[in-house]
């Protein structure tokens, strides 16, 4: 319930801010919101704006939605090992050490998030720390550090922004065409009818689902890349062992962007999976 409320409030705030920005842009540029240029501007503001605001807030949202506690001063040997391990890997990868946090969850998982590679967060579940060996956990941490070092969060945000922009723009262009056809091109009618907004809503849902397959395909490729990065940081055998351990774990509980940058994703979903099957990831490492 807390996650749902946080999600709704965050998106409401984002829509409000972008709406104000868009109204100011239209006022100062003099663009007609119904023109192709106006529609493209609207699509770009909401498409890219929503993605980048979400990225900017990603650490804040992740901490509050998962209850992750950042380790500012290690209180035990495990926390000390976590901080030192991530710091060593970050140095080797050529990035600033990210914040390190632990969140309470029974599944074996971890995720990375943050606005850029030098202001990131790596969080691991309590279930991972309890169920994995140090070598396996080290490989998982290396996987997340590799995501950060490769700039995957920003790249995924850019891709999502492009996809969102095209979905919003094409849905509105087609919505105008369909609405005009349904109204027999009545030039005397003023304003857009209710049917236009229904059509746009339906088209955005359809195109959004189709476009998400592109984003998920790219996400799966980045998982292979992060596995390879982890293998370079800590060794191929450790990464393979970690993935084999994950085969015995339960379904992950992470959602949204945190799922995309977690060590493990849902085991089903086909084209909509954010992670490749664990078997495919293990095979790719073995053949590398």
TrEMBL record:
Binding site for Zn(2+): 143, 147, 223
Subcellular location(s) per record: Cell inner membrane; Cell membrane
UniProt xrefs under Gene3D superfamilies: Metalloproteases ('zincins'), catalytic domain (3.30.2010.10)
Record-level GO cellular component terms: plasma membrane
Pfam families per UniProt: Peptidase_M48 (PF01435)
Protein's UniProt keywords contain rRNA-binding: no
Cofactor note: Binds 1 zinc ion per subunit.
GO biological process annotation, one example: proteolysis
Active site, UniProt feature: 144
Transmembrane segments: 37-57, 153-174, 194-218
A GO MF term: zinc ion binding
EC code(s) of this entry: 3.4.24.-
Keywords from the named record: Cell inner membrane, Cell membrane, Hydrolase, Membrane, Metal-binding, Metalloprotease, Protease, Stress response, Transmembrane, Transmembrane helix, Zinc
Cofactor annotation: Zn(2+)
PANTHER family for this protein: PROTEASE HTPX
Family of this protein: Belongs to the peptidase M48B family.
Alphabetized NCBIfam families for the sequence: PRK05457.1 (NF003965)
Name assigned to this protein: Protease HtpX
Organism of origin: Psychromonas ingrahamii (strain DSM 17664 / CCUG 51855 / 37)
Lineage of the species this protein comes from: Bacteria, Pseudomonadati, Pseudomonadota, Gammaproteobacteria, Alteromonadales
Protein's gene: htpX
């Amino acid at each position: 319930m807390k996650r749902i409320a946080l999600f709704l409030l965050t998106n409401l705030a984002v829509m409000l801010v972008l709406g104000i920005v868009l109204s100011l842009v239209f006022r100062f540029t003099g663009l007609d919101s119904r023109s192709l240029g106006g529609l493209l501007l609207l699509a770009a503001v909401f498409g890219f704006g929503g993605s980048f605001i979400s990225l900017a807030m990603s650490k804040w949202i992740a901490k509050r939605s998962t209850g992750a506690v950042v380790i500012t001063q290690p209180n035990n040997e495990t926390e000390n090992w976590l901080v030192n391990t991530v710091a060593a890997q970050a140095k080797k990868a050529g990035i600033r050490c990210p914040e390190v946090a632990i969140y309470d969850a029974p599944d074996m998982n971890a995720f990375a998030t943050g606005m850029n590679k030098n202001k990131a967060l790596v969080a691991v579940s309590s279930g991972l720390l309890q169920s994995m060996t140090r070598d396996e956990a080290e490989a998982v941490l290396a996987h997340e550090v590799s995501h950060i070092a490769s700039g995957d969060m920003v790249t995924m945000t850019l891709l999502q922004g492009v996809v969102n922009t095209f979905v919003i723009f094409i849905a509105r262009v087609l919505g105008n065409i369909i609405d005009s056809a349904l109204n027999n091109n009545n030039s005397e009618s003023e304003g857009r009818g209710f049917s236009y907004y229904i059509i746009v809503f339906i088209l955005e849902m359809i195109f959004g689902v189709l476009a998400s397959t592109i984003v998920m395909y790219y996400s799966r490729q980045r998982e292979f890349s992060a596995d390879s990065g982890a293998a370079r940081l800590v060794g191929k055998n450790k990464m393979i062992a970690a993935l084999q351990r994950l085969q015995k774990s339960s379904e992950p509980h992470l959602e949204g962007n945190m799922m995309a940058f977690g060590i493990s994703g849902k085991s089903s979903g086909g084209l909509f999976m954010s992670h490749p099957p664990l078997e495919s990831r293990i095979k790719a490492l073995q053949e590398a």
